[in-house]
Each structure stands twice: as structure tokens, then as C-alpha cells.
């Protein structure tokens, strides 16, 4: 059995501010350590349930956050930028299940450091009319390859967002968001025990999970934070300016669409 893990940083217990999430930021090196510990708990839970191969993709910012020397010795690590599938690089149909660790609520929802892909650029993303954050965007990518997302960890807002989208998914709310920049984090040992347990349960109950899919062709909508961003991105044929802030396009399949979405965000940034 093969398990794929995409690891973000904003949804890790103890993380409440952007300064903890980028190189040079205060406490960034401590947050990287916490992130690695939570990923290790998920890896161990998967192995406990019979997984033989676990691939971990570092999916935050520079994508060089996880501490390799502290990472579970049985896990393979993808890190660095320039990855075609970015937060989901390495996923394919050879995997049995996906875990999203350290994730956060989508832009404009309650939750610690809520945003969608780029906090300064993206106001919202819709897939066939459904508003999605990174959890939805990346779960549809896994679904494109027929792989179900079975475990999602972050704050309680993220847990609710994931369960609404995928009723089968196991979640761990490692912290309770009080505001966008304040949370009550569970005790560290409890966080790791819960992640390990839920990872085990999620893998043991794979038959109750299904891949998240959407109808194709797929209609994507991308709302920017300001009109200058939309102006910069509005240069491609096959993309419509739906309103001053919003670009829309249709893609023959989800994967093609999500790559175009990334390109538009890059142009607008
Ligand atoms: Zn992140």
C-alpha cells in the first residue's frame, strides 16, 4: 500500500502568524520542526496500518520546510520549487490514499491564516460553481488520478471545510482558531497521538472513501484581490473576463484546468 502526503505549514499546531511561515521570520525554524513532527506522526500511522511506502511532498512556500534529518526514516521526501503539480507533485494512480497535513481554511472563511494559494492575489476559486480552497483544489487533483483523500489536519475550520467536501474524510483539529491570528493549540503529545491514530484509522477504512471528482469539461473561475491583478492575467485566449475581478475558463479535464489556474495566478501576482 502506498500513501501520499502533502504537507503545508499554516495548519500545524502552534502556528498562528505569517512570521512563523517564511524563511527569516521569527520562530520559522521552530515551526519547521513542529511541521516535521506532525508529518512523522502521520507517516507512522500509515505504516501502523500496513502501508509499505510513504511519499511526503513539502507543499508550503519555498517547499523546503521539512527537516530532512528529522523526517521519519521510512518516508521519501519531495522538496523544492519548479514542481509541475506543486502542492501535489508526485501524485499518480499508484497511490492508495492521500493525507493533507497542516492545511488551512480557504480565503475569506474563518480560520488561522485563511487563504487560497496566494493570500495577496487570490480572492476565491470555483470549480464547476463550487468554491474551493487548497483542500478542494488538491483533493480534485488526487481524484483525477483516482486516489481518495482520507485524512486532513489543521484547525477546526479546515476540518469542517474538508468534511463538507468529503464526508468520508478523517480529520484532526490540532488547534481551535479564535481569530485569523490566534488559536488554542492542543498539547503537543496529544496532537501527535491523534494524528497517528487517525492516520491509522483512515488507512484501515479505505473502502469507505472515494476519490473526489467533478464533471468534465470543467468550468473554473478565479477571483483576484484587485483589478490590476486581473488586468495582468487577462491576456490569454480562451479566458473570459467575467467581471472586473474575475476570470473564467473551461478545461477539457481537471488537471489541464488546475495547471491553467496556476498560470493565471502567476500572471496576476
Ligand atoms: Zn502554506
Oligomer: single chain
Q: Bound small molecules, which ones?
A: zinc ion
> Spans of 5+ residues with little confidence (pLDDT < 50)?
none
Q: Could you estimate the helical fraction of the residues in percent?
A: 25-40%
Major sheet attributes: 7 strands, mixed
Number of strands: 12
Mean pLDDT, all residues: 97
Distance between the termini: 39 Å
Widest β-sheet, arrangement of strands? 3-2-1-4-7-8-9
The CATH topology of the largest domain corresponds to Rossmann fold
Evaluate the radius of gyration: 18 Å
Could you explain how this protein is built, in words?
Helix 1 runs parallel beside helix 4 (188-204) and helix 5 (227-233) crosses helix 6. The longest helix is centred in the first third of the chain and has 21 residues, at 28-48. The protein folds into 2 domains: 2-117 and 134-208, Dipeptide transport protein (Rossmann fold); 218-268, no CATH class. It is α/β, with parallel strands linked by helices. 30% of the residues lie in helices and 26% in strands. The strands form 2 sheets. It has a 7-stranded mixed β-sheet, with helices on both faces. The protein is built from 6 helices and 12 strands. It starts with a strand and ends with a helix. Strand 5 (122-127) and strand 6 (130-132) form a beta hairpin. Bound molecules: zinc ion (ZN). Zinc ion is lined by residues 8-10, 60-61. Zinc ion binds next to loops.
